[in-house]
């Protein structure tokens, strides 16, 4: 326990503001640290919020008032989680994707206890995030991002553990519903932050990753009506950032205007948000546009996401984008480029390429028969693109048939034959 308290002193005495990396290690401990700290904390239950606040204030005199109290409260909640629940790193291990793997790590009651305790950590993190924007705890944002992501993953897995039908749209997912409702508040706070500081120094810098977490939850719940509120908050944050850049350019001397003007570019590399967050955001926006029937908008957003989703980001991300981009291209009458074909794995190719071939002929009867093959039909339904392909692809194929018929009639008119007309 003394080692943990010493790490608190070290985290808050490094500079006028705590180190982001050091603060993360205080809240989200590794599995090894969890095991060592759990036994030690059992004998030191006297370590509470007031004691932690005293340690922080001795190490950093600038930490006072509400900011100090909420920081100490968050650290206390993290210690309570360590004392009463399994290691969060084990429960949210990305290598484990099946229910039997999750249950091998902890029993269902232990998962429920972990969710309840981590919900407290999230609530206190949200309270710290909502501290007055005149003194935004920017050093805390990386920790809040990790806490939010782990809370979302924990709730998704607990819903699946509670019922094998939790992924069904008709099945209630109470833990994920609770999680998304808690996430909605910080998303709104980030979008409405009007602090007259550069975007990366305000809550607006957290708008996109908070929005991405919230969108992920809404898609899991199939509650897409609430997605527009998230998009609105992210747009508001972007607009505030542009307003700050505009005011900076207007007041800046001529020598600095040329170097600052790049912030107004549409190049994603010059946004305050990391490229990975922008790619994830565009992916969810594209999927939302598909559900709204705005196919061209969806194609634009998903194409953007694919273009900037480099191979280093992982095969799974590229595959997820292609699974929704290809049906948009099919409906719009486009053929996949060589670059896109080079990205396809065998599973995605078998799902879509036969449809592209029949669309190009065009052969409506064969297309419908291939589309309604049971295995393909069920896959497309799970992706929520089956109805879009079925209802909108026929128009393009009829257009192709009429075009070919007109060409044949034109040739027949030139030769004086009516064989094809």
Question: Describe it for me?
Answer:
It is a single chain. It is built from 21 helices and no strands. By secondary structure, it is mainly alpha-helical. It has a domain at 1-93 and 108-139. Helix 2 (20-27) packs parallel to helix 9. Residues 251-265 have low confidence and may be disordered.
Average pLDDT for all residues? 85
Report the structural category: mainly alpha
Distance between the termini: 89 Å
- Helix count from the secondary structure assignment: 21
Oligomer: single chain
Give the helices and strands as they follow along the chain: HHHHHHHHHHHHHHHHHHHHH
The helicity comes to over 70%
* Strand fraction: under 5%
Sum up the overall morphology in one term: elongated
Give the tally of β-strands. 0
Over the alpha carbons, how many angstroms does the gyration radius reach?
27 Å
Sheet of most strands: none
| Low-confidence region ranges | 251-265
Question: How do the helices and strands line up, and which of them pair or pack?
Answer:
Elements: H1 2-13, H2 20-27, H3 31-42, H4 49-59, H5 65-84, H6 88-91, H7 99-105, H8 108-129, H9 141-162, H10 174-191, H11 207-221, H12 227-251, H13 254-260, H14 275-291, H15 295-308, H16 315-331, H17 338-343, H18 346-360, H19 364-371, H20 374-382, H21 386-415
């Amino acid at each position: 326990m003394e080692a943990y308290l010493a790490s608190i002193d070290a985290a808050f005495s490094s500079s006028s503001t705590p180190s982001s990396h050091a603060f993360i290690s205080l809240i989200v401990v590794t599995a090894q640290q969890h095991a060592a700290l759990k036994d030690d904390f059992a004998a030191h239950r006297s370590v509470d919020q007031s004691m932690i606040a005293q340690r922080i204030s001795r190490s950093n005199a600038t930490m006072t008032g509400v900011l100090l109290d909420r920081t100490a409260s968050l650290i206390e909640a993290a210690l309570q989680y360590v004392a009463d629940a399994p290691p969060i790193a084990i429960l949210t291990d990305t290598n484990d994707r099946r229910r039997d793997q999750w249950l091998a790590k902890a029993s269902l009651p232990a998962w429920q206890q972990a969710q309840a305790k981590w919900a407290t950590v999230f609530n206190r993190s949200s309270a710290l995030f909502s501290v007055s924007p005149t003194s935004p705890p920017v050093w805390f944002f990386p920790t809040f991002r990790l806490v939010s992501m782990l809370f979302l993953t924990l709730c998704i897995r607990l819903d699946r553990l509670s019922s094998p039908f939790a992924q069904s749209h008709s099945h209630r997912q109470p833990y994920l519903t609770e999680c998304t409702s808690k996430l909605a508040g910080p998303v709104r706070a980030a979008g409405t932050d009007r602090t007259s500081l550069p975007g990366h120094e305000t809550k607006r810098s957290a708008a996109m990753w908070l929005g991405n977490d919230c969108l992920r939850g809404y898609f899991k719940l199939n509650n897409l009506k609430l997605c527009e509120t998230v998009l609105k908050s992210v747009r508001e944050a972007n607009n505030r950032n542009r307003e700050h850049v505009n005011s900076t350019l207007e007041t800046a001397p001529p020598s600095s205007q040329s170097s600052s003007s790049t912030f107004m570019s549409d190049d994603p590399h010059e946004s305050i948000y990391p490229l990975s967050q922008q790619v994830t955001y565009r992916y969810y926006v594209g999927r939302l546009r598909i559900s709204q029937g705005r196919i061209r908008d969806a194609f634009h957003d998903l194409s953007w996401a694919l273009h900037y989703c480099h191979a280093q980001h992982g095969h799974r991300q590229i595959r997820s984008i292609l699974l929704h981009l290809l049906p948009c291209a099919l409906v719009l009458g486009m053929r996949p480029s060589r670059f896109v074909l080079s990205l396809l794995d065998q599973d995605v190719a078998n799902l879509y390429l036969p449809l592209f071939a029949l669309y190009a002929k065009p052969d409506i009867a064969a297309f419908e028969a291939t589309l309604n093959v049971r295995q393909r039909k069920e896959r497309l339904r799970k992706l929520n693109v089956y109805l879009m392909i079925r209802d909108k692809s026929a128009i393009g194929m009829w257009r192709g048939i009429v075009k070919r018929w007109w060409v044949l009639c034109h040739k027949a008119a030139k030769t004086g034959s009516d064989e094809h007309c």
